[in-house]
Amino acid sequence: MPKPKVAAVLTDRNILQKFDVVGSAILIGSVVQLLLALHYGGGKYPWNSATVIGLLSGFAAATILFVVWEYRAGENATIPLKMLTNRVVASASMVNIFLFGVTYIATYFIPIFFQSILGDSPMESGIHMLPSMFSSIFFTVISGMMGKAHIIPSA
């Protein structure tokens, strides 16, 4: 009978040594550049301006640097690349990206629709959004309880 693996005791020092500070900083920098480019593009600056193109180029370069850094960091990476080769994790990540993308788009544009098309005030627009927000909170709690009670099988 094989011996059980002994769990390593994680001290504060071990946790800090395993934390990928550089990878996290590169990831944050790349995402900030992408968000700034999307925010500025077509609004404050035209899409073909040097500012927007520079931000998008910086995002691409930082993303490439992040992938290289994560590859070199191995198991201590912010996002271990080995984890992404698991089909269940990769497909669940894609589902979450598309699902929450739609959710955030709806949460952003529906109040604009209420205000610009229906002529509601910002307060009325927020009140119209309350049923959606309350139902999201309710079903999030219910799904969490179902997962905790093992009603939903884990992958």
UniProtKB/TrEMBL annotation:
Membrane topology: Multi-pass membrane protein
Compartment list: Membrane
Superkingdom of the organism of origin: Eukaryota
GO molecular function, one term: transmembrane transporter activity
Keywords assigned by UniProt, alphabetized: Membrane, Transmembrane, Transmembrane helix, Transport
Family of the protein in this entry: Belongs to the major facilitator superfamily. TCR/Tet family.
Name of the protein described by the UniProt record: Efflux pump
Organism for this UniProt entry: Colletotrichum tabaci
